[in-house]
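Rotation project, supervised by the postdoc (A.L.). Task for the rotation student: set up a whole-complex structure prediction and record inputs and outputs verbatim in this book. Inputs entered:
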Amino acid sequence: MSLYDWLLFFHVTGAFFLLGGILIAGILNFVAIVKDRRPSQVASLYGLIRFAVPLIGAGLLLTLAIGLWLVNEADYGFGEAWVVSAIVLWVLASVLGNIDGKHQRQTGELAQRLAAEGDAPSSELRARLRDPRALAISYGSGLMAFAVLGIMIWKPGA
Amino acid sequence: MLALVRPDSWNLPLFLHVLGATLTFGATATVALLGFAGLRGDPERATWLRGLAFRIGGFVLVPAFVLMRAGAQWIADKEFPGGNDEPGWVGVGFIVTEPGAILLIVMLILAWLAARRPSFRGAVVVPWLASIYLVALGIAWFAMSAKPGS
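Outputs recorded:
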């Protein structure tokens, strides 16, 4: 196996971690918002989302670092349109994902507090879960990461 | 360096295959997480989490698996028409998806029973089967990306 093969394996591993982690967080978030749930149930779901965070972090690191190495190893140019657009989308997805992560962490903490205080349905929690701006950031960030997968395969302009 | 010389007509099946594989990985991991979480805590919470594991298995994992497997067949038919001269790494993919389908069916049946009966002892098997399948997917993506022996 050549260096290129090993790099491609670790790059693909990063993509699986990143996209798999995004899907875990997306599914659990969707389950939390699709019905009116008790704060204890929301806290349980958000408690599981934290397992996706290291997966997403490792995926982001591997896809970018090994991806840049692959561009060099395979003699692509760093100025090629598909490389630049993939990096721009990666940065945007990371920034939006970071903003979303803070919102989700605060929502999880609120759900935990409400669960400990009697577990009664809360309009504040419902509003946070269904905040359209937060949802747009969350799902927009995930879709950008999946768009990078398409760019990696079609390599427009290469 | 197949990726450098791949014909354009292979891109859509490859995209669908890889998309299905990443979704299968994420959905399987979600089933494992919910399955392990559903082994602890009070019975009402455990049953709810096991029910979620079953529904995510049925509504997300199964379609993702079908997308992965159909995309695999489509690209394999283009790359190796008639199954001629298929290298070993393609065979690894089929080993992971075909017996893997049986494993997922068993897992879903057990998840369904676990969601219906709080005292069902087989509930403990569900997240472990999902974990085994995650390892199998890892072996497949190693074979598909690094293509050892080719």
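Student's summary: DSSP finds six helices and no strands in chain A.
Supervisor addendum: The longest helix of chain A spans residues 81-116.
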